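Quick one, probably user error.
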């Protein structure tokens, strides 16, 4: 059975997870892209005070989609906002059964760029304005064992995508609907 791939894009707020995923979507036709942030957005109209419901529901939905894709279609998957350890734990039986290999990328960013990028963000920010660099460093996400770490402050987007493609053994391909990808997300 042909090896299939799950690529995880994770990292810090404003590190370029969505931007990188959109660019990958444009050069990896026939992959499914799951953005947990988009699943969480479905719950925004509810204006929930307890946001843990969002996290729990979105993670369950993501896993359900992934399991269905793995079992039925067997196509490659790109997913954001999750970790290697979470998927390894929750897809423990699916990964070997359907011959999927995990690739995980952690996008890092420097504090000076966090502030600059936060102002330019298209989607609602999760970054608290006025957060000191010390507090930001203390509470930020951290890479896991096995993550390929890419500093997006020092690496242009095209190069970030090239690094990921090389690591996963894929080449850029022309996506027939590349111009529509950003709009659909």
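Nope, works fine. Designed sequence:
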């Amino acid at each position: 059975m042909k090896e299939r791939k799950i690529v995880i894009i994770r990292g810090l707020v404003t590190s370029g997870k969505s931007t990188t995923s959109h660019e990958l979507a444009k050069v990896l036709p026939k992959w499914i892209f799951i953005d947990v942030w988009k699943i969480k957005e479905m719950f925004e109209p509810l204006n929930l005070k307890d946001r843990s419901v969002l996290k729990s529901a979105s993670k369950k939905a993501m896993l359900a989609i992934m399991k269905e894709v793995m079992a039925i279609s067997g196509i490659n998957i790109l997913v954001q906002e999750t970790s290697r350890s979470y998927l390894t734990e929750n897809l423990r039986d699916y990964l070997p059964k359907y011959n999927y290999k995990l690739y995980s990328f952690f996008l890092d960013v420097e504090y000076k760029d966090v502030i600059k990028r936060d102002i330019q963000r298209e989607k609602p920010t999760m970054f608290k304005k006025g957060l000191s660099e010390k507090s930001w460093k203390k509470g930020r996400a951290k890479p896991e064992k096995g993550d390929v770490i890419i500093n997006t402050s020092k690496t242009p987007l095209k190069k970030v995508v090239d690094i990921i493609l090389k690591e996963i053994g894929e080449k850029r391909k022309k996506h027939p609907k590349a111009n529509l990808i950003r709009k659909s997300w």
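The CA atoms of residues 63 and 90 lie 8 Å apart.
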